[in-house]
Write a structure and sequence with these properties.
This protein has one domain: Rossmann fold (3-Layer(aba) Sandwich), CATH 3.40.50. The protein has 11 helices and 11 strands. The chain has a 7-stranded mixed sheet with strand order 6-5-4-7-8-11-10, with helices on both faces.
Length: 328
């Protein structure tokens, strides 16, 4: 194992034994098998070896967000409308309510890092925030700009030039797990936040729930190599602290989020990117509907995991100290 990939992405401690081995990409974009090694200190997992920039970029399919999937037939358009109304929109509303409740914010400048098409961001804009979406995918940003009327910036957070202390809230919605250097990115977020500003990150987390039950079949593991790290709550706390933030709290996801991750683990081919981008084949659509039905079936299990504080996702909140001054 190379020295540069022998440390935990989240706390910087040495990596220990393999946690998941022989992992295959559920989307089939990468033909390699992958290994996640567990941190000896915080328990988080890091992919070994880390994929290079070109390999990582090649692992993303042409359509990685539901809003980008072609809707070229009546049934695809109907499926999209039903899925967004019954699944995605409840998740987005829950996200807005949770962020406002924990942070106390009901407006201000918001930067959504990795926000893609901006569908999720749009719900924050409707709640009173002035939103900007940052993403490296130009096609996704076209949707954010033209459909949702959002300000967009193309690039990586640690590469774009933005004025310091210009945002009240920076969000990472299932983004941190994709970053080969999350500390560098969060340090840049710290620079961009005003004193007292908040960073909110939703990430898959290693707990005694899905991660233990499903092992390498867990849908968040088979997102390798797009998912390069899988943190524990302790790993996220240490990551925030290393970047200067004061960790405040974390909470579980919406029940549909938890249930859908479980369903995708059992029927990997039911994910949007696989089932809705094929041409002239009804089987993928049938699998998508089956995945939706299974999501409802496993919802009681998802609710139990959330109530036991062992969810597969967590929403983490950290704050820039209020007494921080520019130039420190």
């Amino acid at each position: 194992m190379d020295d540069h990939n022998s440390l935990c992405l989240f706390c910087g401690s040495p990596l220990d034994k393999p946690l998941y081995q022989g992992v295959r990409d559920s989307l089939g974009m990468s033909r390699r098998t992958w290994t996640f090694r567990q941190c000896s200190a915080c328990g988080s997992a890091t992919i070994v070896p880390l994929p290079g920039p070109d390999e990582l970029l090649a692992a993303y399919p042409p359509f990685y967000a539901p809003d980008q999937v072609p809707r070229n037939t009546p049934i695809r358009r109907l499926l999209y409308r039903v899925e967004t109304a019954l699944f995605y929109h409840p998740l987005y509303r829950y996200s807005v309510r949770t962020v406002c409740r924990v942070t106390g914010l009901h407006g201000g400048q918001l930067l959504d890092v990795g926000g893609g098409t901006g569908h999720h961001t749009f719900f924050f804009q409707q709640a009173g925030f002035e939103c900007t979406v940052l993403d490296f995918d130009k096609r996704a940003l076209e949707v954010a700009s033209h459909r949702f009327g959002l300000r967009t910036i193309c690039g990586q957070l640690d590469e774009v030039e933005l004025p310091p202390e210009s945002f009240d809230l920076i969000t990472f919605h299932t983004v941190i797990e994709h970053l080969p250097n999350p500390r560098r990115t969060l340090c840049q977020a710290y620079r961009l936040l005003r004193p007292g500003g908040w960073v909110v990150a939703k990430v898959p987390i290693l707990t005694r729930g899905q991660a233990r039950w499903l092992g390498r079949r867990w849908s968040q593991v088979t997102e390798a190599p797009r998912h390069v790290g899988l943190p524990t709550p302790q790993g996220m706390e240490r990551l925030f602290a290393a970047c200067g933030f004061e960790f405040q709290a974390w909470t579980g996801p919406h029940i549909l989020d938890e249930a859908s991750a479980l369903a995708l683990s059992l029927i990997p081919s039911s994910r949007t990117h696989t089932s809705c981008s094929g041409q002239g084949d009804i089987r993928p659509l049938v699998l998508r509907v089956a995945g939706a039905a299974l999501t409802l079936i496993v919802s009681p299990i998802a609710l139990l995991l959330i109530r036991l504080n062992e969810p597969g996702f967590g929403i983490f909140f950290a704050q820039k100290p209020k007494d921080h001054f520019a130039g420190e």
